[in-house]
Give the backbone structure.
Amino acid sequence: MDDMLTIAGKGYRSRLLVGTGKYKDFDETRRAVEASGAEIVTVAIRRTNIGQEPGQPSLLDALPPTKFTYLPNTAGCYSADDAVRTLRLARELLDGHDLVKLEVLGDPQTLFPNMPETLKAAQTLVKDGFKVMVYCADDPIQARQLEEMGCVAVMPLASLIGSGMGILNPWNLSLIIEKATVPVLVDAGVGTASDAAIAMELGCDGVLMNTAIAGAKDPVLMAGAMKKAVEAGREAFRAGRMPKKLYSASPSSPTTGLISPK
């Protein structure tokens, strides 16, 4: 409780945020999310029913908003206008909910962020009263611009969405973390537990993932592994690792007071 993740003034015990797409059904979604320990779940408004389709199975039944903080996102949007329109719809469906995840994609192949459109959408949404967490390139300058604009968290990609390639550029992430005064969460690219641990060891405030869990052979088991990895990485960061050395002349065992052989 003394090391909570704070986003837009609200504290969370878990630093793992998980997506709700790509599972075989809502039951598997529920079991995986519960195993992950996540308190914040992302929802692709264009792909998931949260009330747009009356009479159809709804994610709201599997993951009640009274238990989880919903983070509507704009997955599938390729322009600022589409993203803004989508999140305004989400706010209506979720009774005025204002914490959202913005992502404006550049192309359907790489799903890399379109940063000019992302900056444009972020500015509009902040002015419209939204609390914006934003998927972005691992560019320290653009991350700073988003923060200065009023975004409540920046979420640079570790590698391409759904690639599972892990953290390809730890140096840029470190530069973003060093300067940011809002939470920095790795978004996209995590493939396995060690990737999540590395992100946390670098000093990230949290990790968001979907495919790494939903795409595993056993999503529920992987969700539990990711929970442990994020917690271990955070504890390692707080503990402060030993310095790296090519070699060490100082043995780990004492060299004085040894028992002399007879």
